[in-house]
Amino acid sequence: MAGALPWVLGTVLGLLCVLQLVVLSSSHHTDTCRSLHTLENSLNYSGRRTYMLQKHYLPINYTIAVHYEEVFRVSNLSRLNSTVPHKDLESFWLFVSKEVLKKILRVLPTEHPSWRYVADLEELFRKIEDEFSKQLSQQSWWLGEMQRRVKESKETKCVKPKALLDNCFRTMKCLFSYCFDFKTFPCKPFSNGTTALCSFPDPCTRGLKIKKSGEGRRGSDHTTSRPSCSSVCPTP
Length: 236
What we know:
Layout: H1 4-42, H2 45-52, E1 64-67, H3 74-80, H4 86-107, H5 115-133, H6 141-152, E2 156-159, H7 161-175, E3 188-191, E4 196-199
Antiparallel strand pairs: 1-2, 3-4
Helix pairs in contact: 1-5, 2-7, 4-5, 4-6, 4-7
């Protein structure tokens, strides 16, 4: 009986450690979801349409230059979810969204009526990043490589600011499906074996893949009403 006591104590301590990790993970999820719900309210269709589309806020067909990798759509998730860890996709969404907001702010004067809206979004993303930093132990090779490509890429395309925020909103809903109710969002759920994602009709045919040096880009990266680059499209 005395010999079994250390084994019992070890088992109990092990279970307590596992329980502590589960509670901590649940707490981080709760904090993240709370921040994402706040972001959802600010990033809703009404806000995106008012500040990024109305002609008295931005010129019709106004576009800004972004890197190809910063056009991060739900269709990209469909291609990547089987090979890239879900946490990496969440972290890349956060990184891309922050970069996009920086580019939008860069072309807006501080007195512009849309500037405060975008600046508030950027502040919300900072809070979400703080929550993420508590959960990530180290950066993966894929995430580091994709971030490097965004920072070093010389190739850009011109995209409407509203389209970029639309991408941000839709991918957020799909990546963080555990924070949102599918019944309130028109997307089709599917599973990668571990996490529920969702898909939208999207004519985009390009994937975010790491290509070998010298390999050309394949496919197109257009939307149904692809805007041509406007004369005011600034470089990133």
